[in-house]
Design goal:
- With 351 residues, the protein is mainly beta.
- It has one domain: 6 Propeller (Neuraminidase), CATH 2.120.10.30.
- It has 2 helices and 29 strands.
- The strands form 8 sheets. Strands 1-26-25-24-23 form a 5-stranded antiparallel β-sheet, with no helix packed on it.
- β3 and β4 form a beta hairpin.
Length: 351
């Protein structure tokens, strides 16, 4: 059984100690944990890459977020209009929320309340502890937001999020009238929601399609994946960009942090970053996909933007988050599955 068949067949979902005829152990270090820089040898660990859950009824797994108090990860299946939850204690998976308005990214605020970014309604919403829903943002400059995608919370409580517009481009959300339009409502941009005043600020639009987003460990820099190549062709290189954060309110000096182009066995493959997270040492962990075997999975970059390691997956990886009681378990949402592995790194932030 080759490594692709192994990952497809084996599962960390069941805790039963009885023999599993479909299970074949792998030799450590796991062959799909790839170290590209010798200084990072052992950095991504040696435990197996587990396929915790997979289903033919799950079409596109996205937006994982770790809830520390509840010890679970919630994620979205956008086409199915669902959110799922997996419990840390036994990897039990269940439908967490039906009719999620085709949510994409999810995060939690400083009080542990879930925030979701909805495609269908073009809104950012917060689920209150009593079960009610608060709309945090839905318009800017008198026009509807496109389709908020992903977001992160600053220690001062402000919410920073991206609005590339993918959910307004047609397909399963039912907005066929906008199919093919790269700008369904307004220029794609990055926003900051001041939670004290409720005012929405556009902090940057010098990016084609802002997607995944994360802060550096000290919140002095903001990183955003640009997936503009999906609609703007060669004019939009597949990169992760970075800005300096000024006074926790604005951005300055936007520039490329790294390119997602990669040499795979002598062939340059060009895929996309999507969801991104930062660890406590300032390394950026990026989902990667749309370029095939040897590329798809997770790419890890040091603070200088050099690619130092990979976790290869047999499916396109859309997003990731650090979880577990020590924030050293990496959860990866990949197409029709969710994967996890332990790493020798700690997530810089709580979700």
């Amino acid at each position: 059984m080759n490594r692709r068949d192994f990952l497809t067949a084996s599962s960390g979902f069941a805790l039963a100690v009885t023999a599993n005829a479909d299970y074949t152990p792998t030799r450590y270090p796991h062959p799909d944990r790839v170290v590209l820089d010798p200084e990072f040898d052992g950095f991504i660990g040696q435990t197996p890459i587990q396929r915790l859950f997979s289903s033919p009824d799950m079409f596109w797994a996205e937006g994982p977020a770790w809830h520390a108090a509840g010890r679970y990860v919630v994620w979205s299946d956008i086409p199915s209009n669902l959110q799922y939850r997996i419990l840390d204690e036994d990897n039990h998976v269940s439908v967490f929320r039906r009719h999620s308005n085709y949510s994409n990214g999810n995060t939690f605020d400083l009080q542990g309340r879930q925030i979701s970014f909805e495609h269908d309604t073009h809104r950012v919403v917060r689920y209150e502890l009593d079960g009610t829903v608060t709309v945090l943002a839905e318009t800017y400059g008198g026009k509807s937001l496109n389709a908020p995608n992903d977001g992160v919370v600053h220690p001062n409580g402000d919410l920073w999020f991206t609005d590339p517009g993918y959910g307004s481009l047609g397909a399963y959300e039912g907005h066929e009238d906008n199919t093919g339009s790269p700008q369904p409502h307004q220029k794609e941009a990055i926003y900051r929601l001041d939670m004290k005043t409720g005012k929405l600020h556009q902090v940057a639009d010098d990016i084609y399609k802002p997607n995944g987003i994360c802060f550096s460990p000290d919140y002095s820099r903001l990183y955003v994946a640009d997936t503009g190549g999906s609609h703007y062709s060669a004019a939009a290189p597949a990169v992760i960009k970075t800005w300096d954060v000024v006074d926790a309110k604005s951005l300055w000096g936007g520039r490329d942090f790294t390119s997602m182009a990669m040499d795979v066995d002598g062939e340059i493959k060009q895929g996309f970053a999507d969801g991104i997270r930062c660890d406590t040492d300032g390394n950026i962990w990026s989902s990667a996909g749309w370029a095939g075997e040897g590329y798809d999975g997770v790419h890890i970059f040091n603070p200088d933007g050099d690619r130092v390691a990979q976790i290869r997956l047999p499916e396109i990886c859309a997003n990731l988050c650090f979880g577990g009681v020590k924030r050293n378990r990496l959860y990866m949402t990949a197409s029709q599955s969710i994967y996890a592995c332990y790493v020798h790194a700690t997530g810089a932030h709580f979700c």
